[in-house]
Amino acid sequence: MTQTLLPLAGKAALITGGSRGIGAAIVRRLARDGADVAFSYAASRERAEQVVAEVEALGRRAVAIRADQAIPAEVAALVRDAHAALGRLDILVNSAGVFVTGMVGDAEADLAAFDHQLSVNVGGVAAAVRAAVPLMSDGGRIVSIGTTGAVHVPFPGVADYVATKAAVAAYTRGWSRDLGPRGITVNLVQPGAIDTEMNPSDGPFAATLKGLAALGRYGRPEEVAAAVAFLAGPDAGYVTGATLNVDGGQSA
């Protein structure tokens, strides 16, 4: 009887922000596809350990590492520790992020929160990629999680957030040029409305966002993870510098 080889068998992946929501779904999917995984978490060790247990139940190695994505030194240490724990690094998924809203010019706006958002959503991604590239195998994969709001902003109050994701989109295109000679692909997945704690399907933006989607519903974290798995896998070897929208037709 012939055994089917999983598409990511023998690969090692690091996912930032992998203890909940989209990040946790990506961890589970890459492990299901055969990869050993390391992932970062910010606060809840209990949640991280639960994800580790789920991955280990699949027969894969898993390690959870606490790291603050706003602190470049901690991000660099995260990458080094993941590489040391797994013995190699083939895939980096930048999923960690925060979502802070507020109108420009609002005298009551929390400017420190906006600055922290910039540090996490842009600085944390750049720090992870810079630390990973020297350790990554040739032919590796880098995938970042953005938002369709970086291209089309559907409502007010999110300018600072979508600007951080637009920066990651630009980095993606630039890094694809830098890393192309090594066969490392760099791509971006832009979700629309996905049912997570950050943006629940019964939350304050739900009616608006459902109405914008051609499919008329929120997406599931697993649907974003499927797109990441494709870009991380062998069938996407000629895809780089690209943006893949997973938004139910919101951008149509």
UniProtKB/TrEMBL annotation:
It comes from the Bacteria. This is SDR family oxidoreductase. Keywords: Oxidoreductase. Gene3D superfamilies: NAD(P)-binding Rossmann-like Domain. It holds the Pfam family adh_short_C2. Belongs to the short-chain dehydrogenases/reductases (SDR) family. InterPro entries: NAD(P)-bd_dom_sf (IPR036291), SDR_fam (IPR002347).
